[in-house]
Amino acid sequence: MIRLGATGSQAHLDLCRALETVFRRDGVEFDWVLYSGYDEMVDAFVRGEINLAWNGPLSHVKMRRALADGAPVLALRDVDIGFTTRFITRADSAIDTVEDLPGTRFAFAARDSVEAGLLPVHFLKEMGINPSHSLAAADFFDQRDPQHSSDQVDVALQVLNRSYDAGAISARAMDTLKDRHGVDADQLRVFWTSPGYSHCCFTARPEIDPGEAAQVTAALVAVDDGDEAGRAVLKAEACDRLLPGIEDGWELVEAAALSEGLLY
After folding, report:
1. Whole-number pLDDT of residue 180
2. Which of 193, 222, 244 is the last residue of a domain?
3. Is the domain of 76 the same as that of 204?
4. CA distances (Å), 25 to each of 90, 163, 202, 223, in order?
5. 24-28, 80-84, 254-258: which has the minimum mean pLDDT?
């Protein structure tokens, strides 16, 4: 029996409902439960209440570290490999490199955003810039008057409107600014891009039956837009396909979380 955990968003509700069809037509006995947040899901996973989790990158690292035998990745989206964070400024800005940032105003996304909150803070510190000391302002989404309900779109707008001189946004979010949100991304310039890292994934408990794990991976990788359930899965997670799991790429996330005291 596969018991999947996810968080209580509309997208995850749609995903779980679609996966009922995907798994059951492939002979996988399947159930699911939604949690109020990722930490609640992590706790349930560690207690063994669920044996598969649709995970954010930080919660995957927490699960992997919490179990002596680790937590294998059964699948992930095509967009979750080589994920990157970008530092952006206006096209006409005098900021050309990270070395130009001291004394400027920098906008982060939400505090709990790995790609545009946690990791940018870590990257800046690694490059010798402590945001709380070196920058004139270093604010998260909840510390400013938002210009958009999406924290990463808000970063772009804050920079475009000159409320901040620079900011952090994921490459994936930036690539959707114009088509999805009507933001003139041509007026923004990327002056630094992070190394690639892995992002969301389907994390399994280590004792899951190998045959059942293989069935789950095969069913997920076979998802396409040729039927209603497949289209619903891909739409819910905004991707074109699902790929077999990998075990690397989360090292940057782990290092950043350790340095910021989020892991023990």
Report:
1. 86
2. 193
3. yes
4. 50, 52, 19, 12
5. 24-28
Calculated CA dihedral for residues 127, 131, 132, 138, nearest 10 degrees: 180
Q: How confident is the model at residue 10 (pLDDT cuts 50, 70, 90)?
A: very high
Helices then strands, counting H and E runs in the chain, come out as 11, 11
Q: DSSP 3-state assignment of 166?
A: strand
Kindly list the strands in the beta sheet with 242-244, ordered across the sheet, starting from the edge strand earlier in the chain: 30-35, 2-7, 52-55, 201-204, 73-77, 242-244
**14 and 62 share a domain?**
yes
Contact in structure between 22 and 223 (CB atoms under 8 Å): yes
> pLDDT tens digits, residue range 120-166?
999 999 999 999 999 999 999 999 999 999 999 999 999 999 999 99
* Tokens found for residue 240: 């074109």
Closest CA to 143 of 120, 165, 110: 110
254 pLDDT exceeds 80?
Answer: yes
**Which domain does 69 fall in, by range?**
2-80+197-259
